[in-house]
Structures are given as C-alpha cells and as structure tokens.
Amino acid sequence: MIYSVVAVVGAIAGSVANMLIHRLPRQLPIGMARSKCPRCHTTLNGWDLIPIFSFVTSMGRCRHCKAQISGRYLLVELLCVGTSVGLVAYWGFSAPLLYWAIVAYLGLLIFFIDMETQLIPNSLSHTLGITGVFGHALTGSWTTAVMAAVIAGGSMGALSAITQKIYRRPTFGGGDTQLMAALGSVLGWSAAGWSLYVGFIVGGMVTAPLLLFKIKARTDKIAFGPFIILGAVIVIGACLSGYGPTVMIHTVTIPYLPWTQ
User: Fold this and answer.
1) Other residues' Cβ atoms within 10 Å of the Cβ of residue 6
2) Is the pLDDT assigned to residue 248 strictly greater than 80?
C-alpha cells in the first residue's frame, strides 16, 4: 500500500518536472499559469493532466488538435515513479531519503533540459550545489563541500579552456562547469571526477555512431550535461552495489552513503 502512495506522489512529481523542463529554459512563468498545448495553445483541463494515464489514453496526442506529444512526458513521469519507489525502498522515510530525492529530482531536470535545449539553468545548478553543502554540513563539514565544488568546477573550467585552445572553438559550456561544481558539492571531488570520466566514456559510445553514420557533424553542438548526470548515476550505483572498480569505491565519499559511515 505504501509503495502505491509513493508511486502516485512520484507520478505527480514527474508531471511537475515536465512543466519545469518546458518552462524554465524558456523563462515562462512557473506559478499558477495553466498548461497549454504547444501546438494549438488550448488550455488543458484536469483530464489532460493526469500523470501517465492521460498520455496513454490519448495515445500520445493532444485531445484537441491531435498533435503528437513528445514521449519525454511519459518517460519523465515513469522515471520519477521508479526513482521514488527505489529511494523509499532503499532509505525508508529518513533524512537521507529527502536529500537524495532532491538530488535526483534536480539531476533529472538538468538532464532533460540540457538534452532538449543545450542549456543548464543556473538556478538548478546553484540549488544542487546548495543541497550538497547542506548534506555535508549534516554529516561532516560544509567546508568540505565548498572545497570539492571549487576543485571539481575549477578542473572542468580548466579542461574547457584547454580544449578550446586546442580545437580553436568552444568545447564545453559554462553550464557544464557549474554542473561539475554542483556535483563536487554533492558527491565530493573524487566522485565528481569519476562521474566526468564515466560521462566521457558514455558520451563517446553515444556520439561515435552519430558521427560515423553522419547523423551529426564534428562541428555540431552536443549537450554534455546529460552524460555527466549519467556518469554520476553509474558511479553512485556502482559504489552502492559494490561492483565498481576497487579504486573508485575506495576513493568515493558521498554524504549519507553506507561506506562513509
């Protein structure tokens, strides 16, 4: 029964996430403004906004103009349901649950916003960084989080400057640097570094076929933030499960995770 309630809450959180993903990068109001179909601009009613159910019953189309609705809406809601249930199953109802729920939610927003718009709103990176400072303050020292943010963000900034000098064009954006600083605050400098490393590997695996089959050109811009987020998820999962490389597990220190206790 409790997991059913958690799933419902997760689905609602996913619906809100979809609203934020659409509105934040476009600087649209996120208060009480009613949602509208992006194609016909018809104001949506409650029946149109039931998480998961509305998308499935309408077969992914607007009920008014029949325009195709991005599958991202369903994916985000399902991810929020799965993440919510998984976090509650692992942590129970506790302070760590709240901490990691906030981190996961912000990471999901950054992932999809950057993937769709190649922009990472400063408000999300800053909120993620502040969350990390509070997490470290509760489990150790907030100065640790600040120093980790400086190291991770500074390293990413230096990497961006060096690669821009080599390739004579912008490589990584300022949003990636701020995201790395925020991850340093949340995960610690070591885990943030591993996240970047794994992100490069995943990014290479994804972009290589795109370049090979000329779907993307070498000069095309490709959002890197989603790969950093995926790297962080993989690092956390590997360390939690104990199946990550020994050097990774022994060097990662993250607030509220078992191996730091």
Assistant:
1) 18
2) no
